[in-house]
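Rotation project, supervised by the postdoc (A.L.). Task for the rotation student: set up a whole-complex structure prediction and record inputs and outputs verbatim in this book. Inputs entered:
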Amino acid sequence: MQLDERKRKILQAIIRNYLETGEPVGSRTISKYTDLNLSSATIRNEMSDLEEMGLIVQPHTSAGRIPSDKGYRLYVDTMLEEKEREITELKEMLLEKEEKTEQLLKQVAKVLAVNTNYATMITAPSTHRNKLKFLQLSRVDKHQILAVIVAEGNVIKNSMIRVREYLDDETLLKLNILLNTNLNGLCMEEINLGMIAAIKQKAGIHSDLIGEVLDAVAEAIKADEDLEIYTSGTNNIFRYPELADQQRASDLITTFEEKQLLGHLVEQSLEEKPETGIQVYIGDETRVQSMKDCSVVTATYELGEGMRGTIGIIGPKRMDYEKVVSTLKTLKHQLDDLYKK
Amino acid sequence: MQLDERKRKILQAIIRNYLETGEPVGSRTISKYTDLNLSSATIRNEMSDLEEMGLIVQPHTSAGRIPSDKGYRLYVDTMLEEKEREITELKEMLLEKEEKTEQLLKQVAKVLAVNTNYATMITAPSTHRNKLKFLQLSRVDKHQILAVIVAEGNVIKNSMIRVREYLDDETLLKLNILLNTNLNGLCMEEINLGMIAAIKQKAGIHSDLIGEVLDAVAEAIKADEDLEIYTSGTNNIFRYPELADQQRASDLITTFEEKQLLGHLVEQSLEEKPETGIQVYIGDETRVQSMKDCSVVTATYELGEGMRGTIGIIGPKRMDYEKVVSTLKTLKHQLDDLYKK
DNA sequence: TATTAGCACTCGTTTCTTTTGAGTGCTAAC
DNA sequence: GTTAGCACTCAAAAGAAACGAGTGCTAATA
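Outputs recorded:
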């Protein structure tokens, strides 16, 4: 059986209606509120076909139809209408271009949650592809050296290194120069213990003490690789009865709190990255058990070369895909532009 | 009417039973499972008295009794039995004494939540009473100076300062010495713009450029004053039917996410600080609307002079106060000891 | 051949009624 | 002062009945 234009229209009408109401849609409703001018009986025949094709399902015998995951997929892939959709509050926020990226992102997540009525998440741009810009060791007291590492985009890391013996000013200065000349401009990912070993060799360093310090620096650069995820609007899940029952809600809340499952989702969307940078996961496509009744829309934004972060919107399967996708598209571009200026 | 020993015993029995089951307690239950050897009729008479005194209430005519807030208060104030209660996992964790206080605290919150089956929150020690230990300005590139500020307990702050003109090495070095000699050992709270102005004067600095840098340093020290609160085990609220209905759960989740309401609670307990450092808020005593059906037990710990943080456990009013209070007491001492070593 | 009116049937939802049982308060006896 | 006994209350559980949205199928229609 094939999907002719009429079937498409009916399917679209069913989905549109279901997205709004959340109730199974009957043939009579479609017959009345569509410009197809067909009786409910005809619609019933067509619906029967659509069901056979696996695009819609009946929750029980005497109920209307609701879209299946396959139906949603078809809808998302071929039936979305694009609209420019800006959230003016966001525009203003981005103009201010706060100093602290972290704060800005948290704010974005919050405003997005309030405006869409879905839960949102956002990750700061990952740093591992980021280039090292500046590195400094300073003595804080006799046995402690502070390593400060600055990367492109002014991402700053600190690490306290404990040394057994006093390290004199001269050695410290030498180390600073050595490290800066050898590591500057490299991206975090390229720097590792082996590389540091090579530097040691090249510089002819044999002192155990200095070796230890260098190792600690390498550790510091690698550390903290776990990307932080901020969430907002978690309570929005209670707006949708299909997510609000105790078991489901509890599981979802846990997922949001634990975050590392969300991390998988983020990584997934960073990898798959389609041309638009927007990705839609429906139900099981999220690969997260607790989200099997949810859909997630993610957008990948770039704040500079190799510094990619992800925004996600999490809602029920019957989320307003048109609104969410186009809002995210606009926001993504706004964020991308932020760096270019 | 006055509360004689028998009435106390009966009240205690009612509360103990209710804490366990969450069901209204009837006279028959008390008669059977107490060593008072009284018939249910006698218990009924006593219960009637207790109700008149406002210590217990009846949800409806033909139901058993449940403790009122006043009843809980009496119980918490006078009937708790102390036990040493350690969570061995915590002990091990604390022994490791992780480098990163923040990570450690998050872990503590999590373990505590898993072990008690309540929601938990924890704040890092506030820094404003904390003493400045080390301060350094370094040039990252032509127009950017990085200020690194280290306080007692190795609390590190960074701030990027944008300068319009190039600042030569010599000036930078001079500034570093000036700042360190003048500010070291002072606590963050004492340092402000006025103070910096005084230093400028004393040092005879008239350059606008240097003035700006100093102001930025003062700003950096003050900034970030908002205390961060970490929560864990939010989903535990679903274990208690009296909190798990949609409206209440949604409100609570929001409170945990927004956090600033929790902040009030934290400040409150920092101020009121009783001898033990443990504080119990029952129902409305929390002063937070969404927590009117909850109780909160807080503990104030000290990681050094003036560096006080707070741990909180949030559960239903019928939480296991004995367990929670004594667990927190033990944990508090463990944390307090952590610094002394 | 495609569409539609008509109708019997299904089944979740709502509403109302009945039953059950835990628990009380009161009274009279111990 | 304590207790047995009993009538009474009321939420919750169980059952029964009515409702109605929606379907599938058949036969008539264009």
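Student's summary: Chain A has three domains: 5-74, 97-127+225-337, 132-221.
Supervisor addendum: The two ends of chain A are 53 Å apart (CA to CA).
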